[in-house]
Amino acid sequence: FTTFCIHSAMTLEHHRGAAKEEFLITDIAYCEQAAIFLKQAKFPQNNTQHKKEDGTLPRVICPKCRLGVTRIQDLSHADMKKVRQLALIDMTALCDILEVDVKRHKTGKRKIPESTLFGVPLATMLENDQKLKPNTLIPLFLQKLLTFLEKKGMDSEGILRVPGSQFRTKVLQENLETNFYTERFSWDDVSANDAAALLKKFIRDLPEPLLTAEYLNTFSSVRDITELRQKLHMLNLLILLLPEPNRNTLKALLEFLSKVVSRERKNRMNLWAVATIMAPNLFLHKAVPIRLTDGPEKGQVEKAADVMRLLIRYQDLLWMIPNFLVSQVRRLNENSNRRYQFYDRRFKNLLKKIQPETREKPEKIKSEMRRSVKVQVGDIVSGSLEFHLNINSRTADLLEQFQRQYIRSPANGKGKMRRNGSAVFPDCALYEVGGNIGEHCLDPDTHLLDLYNSNPTGEWIIRVKSYGGRAP
Q1: What is the pLDDT of residues 224-240, one digit of tens each?
Q2: Which of 89, 256, 325, 369 is the most buried (most CB within 10 A)?
Q3: Where are the domains of the chain?
Q4: Which CATH class is domain 362-464?
Q5: Which pLDDT does position 405 carry in this prediction?
Q6: Helix, strand or coil, per DSSP, at residue 183
Q7: Architecture of domain 122-204 in CATH?
Q8: Who's near 203: CB < 8 A, 6+ residues apart?
Q9: According to the CATH classification, is domain 2-107+209-323 in 3.30.300?
């Protein structure tokens, strides 16, 4: 089956000729896919360099399975810990198969400056910020800085490329260090170019690289992989391996850079230009001897920029958890549940003699059934909801029934009122809880009958969707 899936994707690509689209398969382990490609000698042997134009990067499609897409923020911390362990195994095997030479480094001890913003470890800054704003996912200063640049700098020609005034930037940094947390600082007179210079300095001054000392060289090695699909596989696994503060901060930065690129007609900054300007700030760090230092300086920048533009262009794909890893997490949880359910085999055998076990494994439902769904939407509504399942039922259908029955019902009037008199309804999501998963926020396109068959003992709970960091 595995070979057939990959061979089909390759055949489809062959018929397209010069591919304008790529397909990213996530049902099969990435290392296994690489091994099959290598065995079939389908890797191109030429090392043709990509042109600098943005159009050379094709559209990449990740076909949805019937269980929908799982993103990093959709799983519980306990399950994400398992994902990281499994991702490391797959990445190590993938590096071996692709013959990617990876050297990991640990950051040496560096004196942390007496500062509140610049040169402070991300984890420390977040810990302090969460005392002021619980559940925030990225530093408050970075949130304010990116918000300011989005409002004032998006259409500024050469934003990120045109340098700010060194004197003004230094004064601005000192002012922020002193007044940012006292709320006495005003952004009104700050120029967009000075703010952009501060953004780059903030990233450069981190005591440890944003991509971490441990994985920075592996990120850099992605440029040596020939196939785009394998590049994305490696980057996807590396993103999963990043510590949460680094991963969330990187995502906020990439989302901002993507918005800059989207305004290219006004700011004259295309994908290659943005990647070239920003890459040294992420890939060159004095705490880590990096492979990018090999060769001429111009070549170093281009190699780093090549990886940087992949991160910007394909960030939505890279923040997904591959289906094969979600399946492996489910199997780990199932094995763990079985192990702890009867930890004493003799006691289990004694129970069987006294009262033979009559429970049978739930049969897979193929057509229709009714399912009770818990509702826990804060102080707005609680209780349960009966939902009729059939082969086409999706999460979006269940949530629509909930909104219609409980929230938008004239009898309930649960929405908050705007000043203009219109109602604002809570943004709710369906969660799968227990069974072979810790907690899983479901994709709107998840087919619920397939989900039930995959995890028949899990509960379904409707809750208000929580957001951390910047507003979605």
Answers
A1: 999 999 999 999 999 99
A2: 325
A3: 2-107+209-323, 122-204, 362-464
A4: alpha beta
A5: 84
A6: coil
A7: Orthogonal Bundle (1.10)
A8: 210, 253, 281, 282
A9: no
